[in-house]
């Protein structure tokens, strides 16, 4: 039923309030997102932003933030895919864009292949919030939501800094993942 949390989120509530995704993370979307993330499909950024606009307009937010990458990962890729999505979205929606408000303090291994609990443990304490979000409603932007561990940890940081609402906007999410969260 629309608007209700998924089963796992009902069993174990998350720090974020909602997630909106454009697509299921499956072929051919998966390959397009992977190409974008790794620089071969950088030209897809505009297409992805256009796809996100409708879902973004359904989120009540005061500001928009990309999920940060660690400095080593940015050096490796040359850019933060989430920021390439959030920057034009903020401009289109007229929202304050705060890409420096969150810092990924700890370089974590890639989460692909890890089970739910391992993902949670890997990202625990990896982020620091640099801004005061007292009473603010935040839209977090990322490319993919798998288990939700990263988005949950970032939302936890934002809540500790006073965010009243945290909503995720992603290009795609997996509908089934292995392991409990």
TrEMBL record:
One matching Pfam family: Pribosyltran
Source organism superkingdom: Bacteria
Matching CDD domains: PRTases_typeI (cd06223)
All copies of domain Phosphoribosyltransferase, residue ranges: 128-173
InterPro entries (UniProt xref): ComF/GntX_DNA_util-trans (IPR051910), PRTase-like (IPR029057), PRTase_dom (IPR000836)
Stated family: Belongs to the ComF/GntX family.
Protein name: ComF family protein
